[in-house]
Amino acid sequence: MAASTGSPSPMLRLLFLLARLELSQEQERQAVALCSAIDDWAELIRLAQDTYLLPVAYRHLDRLAPSALPPHVMARLRGESLLLIADNLRVAAEQKRLVHDLLEPLQVPYLFFKGPALAARYYDAPGLRCCGDIDLLIPRNRLVDLLARALQSGFQPSKPPRLTADRTALEFAIDRQPIINIVTPGDIEVEVHCQLDKKAALYDTDALLAAREPLQVGDTILHVMPTHELFVYLCLHNTRHYWSHLHWLVDLDALQRHPDFDLAAAHACARQRGLTTTVDASLELSALLANPDLDAATKQLSKRGRALYHACLTTLQGGLEAELALRRKRPAPEFAFHWQTTMRYRIASRLRRWVQPFRPSYFDYASRPLPPSWQWLYYVTHPCRMLRNLILSKRSRP
Questions:
Q1: 107, 147 in Cβ contact below 8 A?
Q2: End-to-end CA gap in the chain
């Protein structure tokens, strides 16, 4: 990998070009030329796996059949891709099971975003889109019902651990965190959200659910976001993570190729959400990384586009450790850059960050369950427990 964020390696340049559903002739020519500069195909496979691009990359390389790509590497690409496609289809099957076994019987309003629902609507071959989990949005007032039924039906708690089907426990957990993770009987993680953003108040859950659209997938109807709304949300989510996964570029490409996509509607939605700068920078990054002449295109970047590009390179070249380092510098939980938000919101986020360690967590309840009328005691015991843990950790250090 390149040592400097300003100079991506031929390997990374090749993956940038392959991160879309279709290639132009110019992109194809440049991709074949870049294959001749690859001296470590095992590392390319690893990077494509880590950035969730491998099945899409294999499809392009199999069609292009560059002479520089050894047959044994192509065979490995095919084998690894088939394993990932099988996993992706298994996640999609678990999503349908979630609908049939929980959401429909309980009559819970919901929508899916990202993951297998996105793949089913916008990819010509949904199995190509790598999906590690299922993202589900439901109203806050139905979260306890859903989680209780799930935990009684073979689902397992993940975050927080030790979560039980007891309604008092569930109410306490939901009050402490907006996302609850459970694991299906088929061993697939489900992130259950009651709001899309943490504290920015960009999205109203009831309004999103009222505007959802049905998507027929085989014998199942999945409810999803309108295309323009999903597009804006993806720009926000992926920028928050510095575009550290290349399959997000494929997502943006897939949405823009879909007949339902309307750029004017996406821009209008971005203005409504206060996310115009985020969407503009994301579009700039997407166009840059699709350009066969990356170096020339980089010179035309705006200041915000350049900041996003450099952050993207940092995370791709440095991995999760580099992304976590950048996250610690975020001005707010939802935003990666200062230009995405206001000074007032950044100050409020910093104050919440200082207060957060003093708020009781579900661990406090799980360690000593108390009825609602006595749960105020956690605000006394929680700081004491944190102080005790800090003292013990210092004593254990050599």
A1: no
A2: 36
Cβ within 8 Å of residue 246, ≥6 positions away: 15, 16, 19, 48, 51, 52, 53, 316
Instruction: Report yes or no: 81 and 89 within 8 Å, Cβ to Cβ.
Output: no
- In sequence order, which residues have a C-beta less than 8 Å from that of residue 297 and are 6 or more positions away? 287, 288, 291
> Are 372 and 168 a contacting pair, CB within 8 Å?
yes
DSSP 205-249: HHHHHHT-EEEEETTEEEEE--HHHHHHHHHHHHHHTTT-STHHH
d(CA 323, CA 14): 22
Judge if pTM exceeds 0.85.
yes
Sheet arrangement for strand 156-159: 156-159, 179-183, 189-193, 133-137, 111-112, 220-224, 213-217
Q: How far, in Å, CA of 353 to CA of 350, rounded?
A: 5
Q: For 42-90, what is each residue's pLDDT tens digit?
A: 999 999 999 999 999 999 999 999 999 999 999 999 999 999 999 999 9
Which residue matches tokens 């002739």? 25
What confidence tens digit (pLDDT) does each residue in 28-45 have? 999 999 999 999 999 999
Residue 239 and residue 282 in contact, taking contact as beta carbons nearer than 8 Å: yes
